[in-house]
Structure formats: C-alpha cells, structure tokens
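user: can you give me the structure for this one chain? tokens are fine.
assistant: on it. calling the predictor now.
[tool input]
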Amino acid sequence: MTKTNMEFTRAMKMEEEPEEKEPEKCKEQNNESKVSQISQNIDNFGVINNAFDFSSPIQYLTIIGSIEGHTVLPPQDKTTKYEHIIPQLVAVEENPNIKGLLTILNTVGGDVEAGLAIAELISTLSKPTVSLILGGGHSIGIPLATASKYSFVAESATMTMHPMRMSGLVIGAEQTYEYFRRMQDRIVDFIVRTSKASKKTVEKLMNATDNMANDVGTILYGKEAVQIGLIDEVGGLDKALGKLKEMIG
C-alpha cells in the first residue's frame, strides 16, 4: 500500500469514529428520557392510588375482580391477590403518618380463606376504616365490606349473599359436610359481628330459593343492604371520604 493510500485510509477512519459514537450518545439520552418518564408515571400513579405514597393521611385500598387465594387464577381474570394486600394493611397499622383507611370494593368474591384473612386484618386495625361498594360486593366481598368500622354502598351497587361453594374434588363423607357447615358459620358469624344484620336474617337470605333463577341466595341492591343492617349507609365517594375524615378527627 502506498503512502497516499495509507493516509487516505487513516483519514477515513477518523471521520467514521464520531459517526460510531454518536448513536451511543443518542441512545444514552433516550434511556435517560425513558427513565425520567417512567419515574414521573410512578409518581403520578402513587398519588392517585396511594400505593406508593404514604405521605397522605388516608390510605386507599382497592379490592376488585376475584379474590385470589393459594391458587393462581387465569391471567385473563382481574384479581386481587391477598399476599399483596396484607403487607399494605400491616403498613397502615404501623405507619404513624396514616390516619385512616378507605377500602373501595367492586368484587365478585373468590377464595374464602383469603377473603376472611383480609377482612380480619381490616376489622382489627386500630385506625378509622371506611368501606365503599361500587358496582358489586358479592359473596366473600360482603365480609370485606362489613369489616370496616363504617360502610357505604352505592345506590346502583349489588351484593349477592349465598352459601359457600367448593370447587374441585369433594369427598362425600360426613367430615366434608361438617367442614362445609363450620366454614359457613365462620362467614355468617363474621358478618353478624361486623354489621347490624341479625344472624337469622343473614342465614335466611343466604339460603333463599326464590330470588335467583339457577342458584340459592339473594341479590341485594344498595338500599336493601342498608335496610337489613348489612351496610350502614347509601352513598358515594364524597360521603365515604367525609365520614372517614370525620372519624379521623
């Protein structure tokens, strides 16, 4: 290779180097921009959902879809995982900056054990708690609603009370029926303990055969749930927040 060719080749490499570095610089800037945007989105979400923002005196908890227990539900189902909810409730009790809890429900029910576990935690919080049912608070969603110290239901919301159901393999033995009976008693006793409804009324509505076409139980609408003492008051978000702030102080 001649001297002239070597110089030409060296010059070409020097011109190419900045072009190779330039995309890397742009890539770094784009990454920084994306990280900043994600952080901003997380901040906005935290303010709305209050899941990441414990500076607010009120913690907001949403229970939607199916209550998922030890068995993972299909990915297309909207679920509330109890292992995610329990740490939040413990944080509410432990954090001195949180003064009250507002639970918003729109659930079809789900795992009985998981639902009762969440309900027991809510009912044993030492801080003011208010629940609000929007859309539906069915099945195990009823104990989750009555677990709060004061409860609201939207006028258009519904609540379905029915006996406990089991899925999967069931052994037709006396012990199985006894387990069913005791599990049903746990649900009824919790509802009676955390609401103004009588045990006789709850059991009658759960075992009714003339209210639902293909099932046993009763569908209650907003005002009906208040009339039997299951829920304290008909109302929406404004009333629920107002009541919680009043209870806080």
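assistant: here you go. The longest strand covers residues 58-68. Strands lie at 58-68, 79-81, 100-110, 129-137, 150-153, 158-161, 218-221, 233-234.
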